Amino acid sequence: MRYTLIGGSGVLLDMLAFLLLHNSAGMHEQLANALSTTIGITNNFVLNARITFDRRDRIVVRFLRFYAVGMTGILLTNLLFLLFTDSLGIDANLVKAGSLPLVLALQFVLNRKWSFA
After folding, report:
1. Stronger pLDDT, 115 or 96, i.e. the higher one
2. Which of 30, 51, 73, 104 is at 20 to 30 A from 113, Cα to Cα?
């Protein structure tokens, strides 16, 4: 439950940053995705380390692992942009929003088994 609530705050930050960077600033969706996801990853790491997993040891190593897991989400979403936005013309905002459940599920499993093990 805590992971879900914290994840929700990261998703909200990620989506808001993406919308601002892509729609308002005109940044390409893949760069906007990398930056917005990094904001969400950082938020989620800090909160999960303190609240969900209660792990404060080896913080740098854990963050690097957590960010590496986050990179899987960035890569997956960027692949979806290539497939759905670039190839099929589907709006990048919809692709970003639609990618989130898949990315979150993948990251939860990887973080639980590797980042905070």
Report:
1. 96
2. 30
Q: How confident is the model at residue 25 (pLDDT cuts 50, 70, 90)?
A: very high
**Distance in angstroms (rounded) separating the CA atoms of residues 28 and 21:** 8
Place of tokens 């960035």: 74
* pLDDT-based confidence at residue 15 (cuts at 50, 70, 90): very high
List phi, psi (to 5°) of 27.
-75, 145
Measured between alpha carbons, how far is 97 from 75 in angstroms, rounded to an integer?
A: 15
Using left for φ > 0, alpha for ψ between -120 and 50, and beta otherwise, residue 96 falls in alpha
CA-closest candidate to residue 110, choices 50, 48, 57: 48
Give exposure, 54-66, as e/b (b: 16+ Cβ within 10 Å): eeeeeeeebbebb
6 to each of 13, 19, 31, 54, 92, how far by Cα in Å? Answer: 11, 20, 24, 13, 24
